[in-house]
Design goal:
Elements: H1 11-23, H2 28-38, H3 43-56, E1 59-62, E2 69-72, H4 76-92, H5 96-106, H6 111-133
Helix pairs in contact: 2-3
């Protein structure tokens, strides 16, 4: 990813981004109907948030049809990386170990997730050892 700083979404914007990442794209009505399953909000509120998200560059709006189609401007991983980096700096003084330990101590982790974490740690350790030999 480039050094370009992505716009930081608000909590409400993140909820809409989650919908777009899962469904790909949608009209205001489609997005609002999915959002309304878990959150009581008005159609005009959803529209207003999407308009602000367009202005911020978080979503792209296709205006070629009568009902505008919205899609996320960035992949989920790009946004997650930026938010995680920000959290790491602000809450954990840039210490990834503290962040991981806190995350693992706060939530139940499945054996599959632990195996995946072990694999990532093993890969990181292997790369670090290879760099040390050069």
């Amino acid at each position: 990813m480039s050094k370009y700083k992505l716009p930081r979404p608000t909590e409400a914007e993140l909820e809409i981004l989650q919908i777009l990442w899962e469904h790909g794209s949608g009209t205001v009505r489609e997005i609002h109907e999915i959002l309304a399953i878990t959150k009581k909000t008005g159609y005009t509120t959803t529209l207003k948030i999407l308009q602000k998200m367009t202005d911020k560059g978080l979503v792209k709006r296709n205006e070629s049809q009568r009902s505008h189609i919205y899609e996320a401007a960035f992949q989920a991983e790009q946004t997650q990386k930026q938010l995680l980096g920000d959290l790491l700096k602000r809450a954990f003084s840039g210490d990834p170990g503290k962040l991981v330990l806190q995350a693992l101590s706060e939530h139940k982790t499945s054996p599959e997730e632990l195996a995946e974490i072990r694999k990532v740690l093993d890969d990181l350790e292997s790369r670090t050892k290879k760099r040390g030999k050069k």
